[in-house]
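Hey, resending since the last one bounced:
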Amino acid sequence: MPQGLCGGRGVYPPNGSCRVSQTRCFHDGFQHTAWRLETQRGYDSDRHSETYQLFLRGEEPVRDPGRPWLANMRLQTGKGKRVERVRVLDDPPTEGQRYLLTGTPYNVAAGEDIRHLGRARANALSLPGVDFWLFDSRVILRLHFDEAPLR
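The structure tokens again:
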């Protein structure tokens, strides 16, 4: 992993893994592109958020356009960098995936390019079943989650 990516100093455990906040990877850790494969059926961090609770009650979960992630996406894409992700969705989408879909317009407005791919198609393509970011087409940051995956 290059020095400076995700706040690192170029020294990582032998297995190549480290625990970092995804947000830290986006300040100065890539030059041109950040691409994510998003495969989970839901995320524990979402389920504990206030907007998720609104969503569960059938209310529109309005996102703060000034929150750090969205502000940084505007900053990075304003510099000409591309931030893209492919989100794998079940048919029908899970509760967690439906929640993510409510936030997609905010991410897109901030400059992200988000595409959706059906899980059956992702499986047919033999895509990996793990989430990761690919920076500048050369560095992969595999994401690990503490919670058990949803089925």
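Strands lie at 33-38, 82-89, 113-118, 132-135, 139-142.

Sorry for the duplicate.
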